[in-house]
Structure formats: C-alpha cells, structure tokens
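Example for tutorial group B:
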C-alpha cells in the first residue's frame, strides 16, 4: 500500500468519525423535531404525524449507523431488538407508561438506539476524556441532587429508589462516564417526549410507588439495558 492509499484511508476514517459526531450532536435538535411531529398538538392542528416520525427515525438511524465504527454498529443493531423487548416488558406487561396510541410506535426501538449511540459518542469527546475524573465527581453530584430533589420535593419516590439502584450499578461499572452521558440523553428525550405527550408515565408504578412524568429514576432501566447490551455484543465475533 503506497502513501496515497494510506492517506485516503485515513481521510475516509476521519470523515466518518466527523459524521458520527455530527449525528450525535444533532441528536437534541432531531429529537425535538421528530417528537413534535408525533405530538398530540401536531396531530390536532395538522395530521397524525406518527408515520412521518417513523420514517425520520429510521432514516436517521441508518445514517448514524452508516457513519459509525464496527463496535458501535453492533451496539446500535442489537439495541433495536433489545429495546423493543424492553418496551414489551415495561410498557405492555408492567404498564409503567403509555404511548398516545395503543401500539408501540415503530420509531421507538430505533430511537432507543439513536439515544444510546449519541451518549456513547458524547463520552468519546476529547473534553470529556481529558477531564474524566473531574466529570465523574460532577456527574455523581448532579445526578444525586436530581434524584433527591425530584423524590423529596415532589414526593416522587420512584426516582429515589431507582436512582439509588442506578448508583449501585454505576459503582459496579466503575463510574464510567459513558453511562452518565447516555443517561443525560435519556433524560432529555424523556422530557421532550412527555412534554409533547407522545407518551405518559403512570402516577404510581405498580400502583404503589409515586412517580413523576417522567421519573428521573428511569435512567436505571436504561443503564441496566446498556449492561445487557454490552454483554450480548461481547459474544458477537467478527
């Protein structure tokens, strides 16, 4: 391989990495647009935008997937199926939340993969990598205040209980910042989705535990899913 071929491969790799970061950083904007189109207000004013959101989410997933490196591709691909299983358990079986229609939207499992991939890419930002130790402390403090604030001030014990379990899980994972950045993406999409009434969390989980809409402690279930996801992909050989 001559120097020109090596340079072309390097440039292609750098361009691909740049595209991956673009899709991750554009995630908040895309989320607002896509969920607004699926919102009750959009449906009342214009038309039912569910199918359009489905198309946009799948298209965004494909573009993000195409720009990603091999390992992240495996994570995204597996996440689509794992998250759909999670939807069946937490939404349909346990009834922890409900979508604005009876069916689980097609865009949801692809959206979960986009959320995960965005948080994963954020954790690779040079600023976060250079300040790993400091950010671990900041993230821990911020999430602790969030869980306690929502739980004690608003009397939503869901966030305290599952927030504590989130920290137990984080301790086992050595407080890796990637789980925090994914959790931040989760919180963002939950706030946007419930604001637009694309889905709604029930006031009491299992009829017993008071929960906000959305409950901040829900990040525990995503983090647990992330651990399972990483374990599954670890058995995926090239």
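The residue assignment follows.
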């Amino acid at each position: 391989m001559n120097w020109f071929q090596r340079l072309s491969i390097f440039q292609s790799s750098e361009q691909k990495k740049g595209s991956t970061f673009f899709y991750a950083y554009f995630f908040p904007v895309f989320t607002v647009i896509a969920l607004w189109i699926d919102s009750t207000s959009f449906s009342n004013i214009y038309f039912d935008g569910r199918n359009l959101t489905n198309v946009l989410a799948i298209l965004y997933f494909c573009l993000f997937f195409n720009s990603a490196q091999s390992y992240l591709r495996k994570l995204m691909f597996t996440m689509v199926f794992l998250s759909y299983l999670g939807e069946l358990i937490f939404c349909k079986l346990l009834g922890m939340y409900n979508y604005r229609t009876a069916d689980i939207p097609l865009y949801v499992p692809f959206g979960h993969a986009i959320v995960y991939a965005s948080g994963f890419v954020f954790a690779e930002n040079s600023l976060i990598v250079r300040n790993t130790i400091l950010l671990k402390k900041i993230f821990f403090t911020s999430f602790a205040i969030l869980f306690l604030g929502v739980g004690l001030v608003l009397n939503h014990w869901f966030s305290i209980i599952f927030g504590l379990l989130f920290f137990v899980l984080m301790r086992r994972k050595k407080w890796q910042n990637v789980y925090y950045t994914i959790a931040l993406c989760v919180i963002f999409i939950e706030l946007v989705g419930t604001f637009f009434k694309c889905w709604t969390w029930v006031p009491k989980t299992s009829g017993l535990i008071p929960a906000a809409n959305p409950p901040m402690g829900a990040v525990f279930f995503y983090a647990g899913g992330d651990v399972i996801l990483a374990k599954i992909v670890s058995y995926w050989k090239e």
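The first strand starts at residue 97 and ends at 99. Compare this with the pattern of hydrophobic and polar residues in the output above.
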